Amino acid sequence: MATDMAVQPRLAAKASQKRKLMIEVVAVIAIALVLIVIMPMLLSGFRLNLLGRFLALAIVALGIDLIWGFTGLLSLGHGIFFALGGYAFAMYLELNTLPDGQMPEFFSLYGVTELPLFWQPFNSFPFTLLAIFVIPAIVAGLLGYLVFRNRIRGVYFSILTQAALVVFFNLFNGQQKLINGTNGLKTSTSVFLGQEVGTPAMRMVFYITTVIALVAMYALCRWLTSGRFGRMLVAIRDDENRVRFSGYDPTAFKVLVFAVSGAIAGIAGALYTVQSGIISPQVMDIAFSIEMVIWVAVGGRATLVGAVLGAVLVNMARSLLSERFPDVWLFFQGALFLIVVTTLPDGIIGWGRRRFGPAISSALGLAPTDLPYLDDSAEAEAVVETPEFAEK
Amino acid sequence: MLEGLIGGLFNGISIGAVLLIVALGLAIVFGLMGVINLAHGELMMFGAYTTFVVQNVAKSIGGIAPEVYIFAALPMAFLVSALLGLLLERTVIRYLYGRPLETLLATWGVSLILIQFIRSVSWPMLIGLAVFAALFLVGRWVLTRYTDWEQIKSWANPVFLGLSAAIAGLTLFLIESSGSDKFTRAWFSTRNVDVTPPSWLRGGINLGATLQFPFARLFIIVLTALCLAAVYWFLNGTAWGLRIRSVTQNRGMSACLGIPTERVDALTFALGSGLAGIAGCAVTLLGSVGPNLGANYIVDAFMVVVVGGVGKLVGSIVAALVIGITTYLLGSGTLVLMFPPTDFFKPMIDFFTFFATTSMAKVMVFALIIAFLQVRPAGLFPPKGRSVEL
User: Fold this and answer.
1) What is the pTM of this model?
2) Do B257 and B292 lie in a common domain?
3) Interface touch A331/B113, C-beta < 8 Å
4) pLDDT classification of A253: cutoffs 50, 70, 90
5) What is the least distance, in Å, from the CA of A9 to any CA of chain B?
6) What is the ipTM for the molecules in this complex?
7) Which CATH number is B329's domain given?
8) What is the distance between the alpha carbons of residues B342 and B96, in angstroms, rounded to a whole number?
9) B185, B220, B238: which is the final residue of a domain?
10) B115 CA: distance to closest CA in chain A (Å)
């Protein structure tokens, strides 16, 4: 009898969780279907292409959320991984367009007669597909290992990733002979699967691929953050020393999650490149990588939906505002940073959940959930202590 | 050979001096307060534009003024940036102490606003801002004085914000539509502007056939040394410096002993920002001035702080000089000449030739910094004790 009584609530909780998961799966599939089937009917080709790009950016936002929202690592260098994925795909497209043995046109401008060694593997499509996410993952893992190994963290990590970004920008920008420098690689006239990349039909293909990739990456992040691994990430974010004293090695987890995040950014970069028609070192601009962080902040840290929503909303606002009032956009963006950081630390989703969450949960017959990220709990409380003390 | 070495050393030191003067304010704000200020570069930019304005005024005065304007520009740049920094600290940063990542994002937002401000600042805009500030602040002051502010705070704040913004916007619109073109146009164009250095800063000392020490570079080295001496004296020789150091070491205990920690914070931040202004004034001697000036220096300056370790000025000095000299030696290709052109050294020569441009030298320097951090994760002079946690 006694065991039954103990099991009962646990079973109920499990059932509630299962229901929640079902609702989430249905919702995600419904949204994906709306994006794939209904959106192309509503939007013009140009707008649909824009939406596709924003969705590709939403994939990076998922990666950022994974490391910032859940693990507490603020990376200001995700442009590197984004660019690596984009360049990998663009290099394949360059080579695929030409008959065998010929070299992309720009090489002749700089007097290069032989295809550089690192271009060779990109003749193969399977290799390229792997390279799109494996190369960024390796670079991220290596950078992460060298930094985390020494327990460098917090703002030091952020500054170092930013410096790494500048370095990669210089590397790609300066090497005309290897990768066409500032001009970047154009993909819009390249041929992929026997069709030109810039045609409406191909754009549609890439749009649908992007939606599917977004759903897949969402599922991946959801899976990573929900189980024991996810709890470990949150534990590292909230108190890394305690994790270390409990006998775990945070370094391995951090390196792994940073590499995964880099891989996700690489996939996003590849999808973004084919939809925008060009990849150039400009995507490794300092500002662009910081913007990625603010998308997540606007949507809501540590809520994966928030990352996607934030990326799409901010970019829509950007394209609307900067089309009409180019002067105002920077003011608006600056104000966005300030407002989100000072008054809306949980983002739109966090605010919405706090305000309407209980009502929605009870309407669907679910148990109320705790917010995964309450801003004033974790890092704030631990460190703010002293200034508050000083005031009194 | 000797001439090349001295030349290389001088150029390296002069690059290091620029880095140091930019990083000095950063090191103070970051080292003493733990605040990452991404708007530091933009505070520099304000210093540079202040220099530009002072120079234009000096030109219109004529006579000896264009020759000595730099001595007026330095304190002006310091003052403008320091006041701006004070405003920034009072309105934004003080709410974010202890949350360095949030501070980082917020200051980035501020830097965007400052860049756009420089691009589009004009008389109508300033008037609009003044109207807004006056309405909002006076309105709030009146309400706090005569009503129960705590009770109406929740709705009164947004209402006042909206009302003042609307009235200010209307004013702006009216002025824009009626004012003359000369009055409404932006002060600075979005393109870069040039500051002409005084004639005595052009040219340089010639030593030998190829070796030249430009006066502008020498001036910056001297200026950096003076700033260092002044900061050192301020921190170690004055009452406020003592308070700053005490708050850095133990905030709670300092507060108990009656040190006004909030005022110390504000003062420290203003000092760091003011130094950014001086740095901005100094870099006008090296090139043209544009709204994106700050971005060119900020990352390198942060590297100086990271390598030097926080909290000790001497760390920043050593780091800046080492980074400056290494960058120059790599970037100018001096290292390539060090090897005799034989087959044995060919791989080395090829290797260093690959990195012998300014941008590629940065790549190499960054790799070296990462390697250095493997040995000394907390920089050259790491802080001791529990305050290390960030």
Assistant:
1) 0.84
2) yes
3) yes
4) very high
5) 39
6) 0.82
7) 1.10.3470
8) 59
9) B185
10) 8
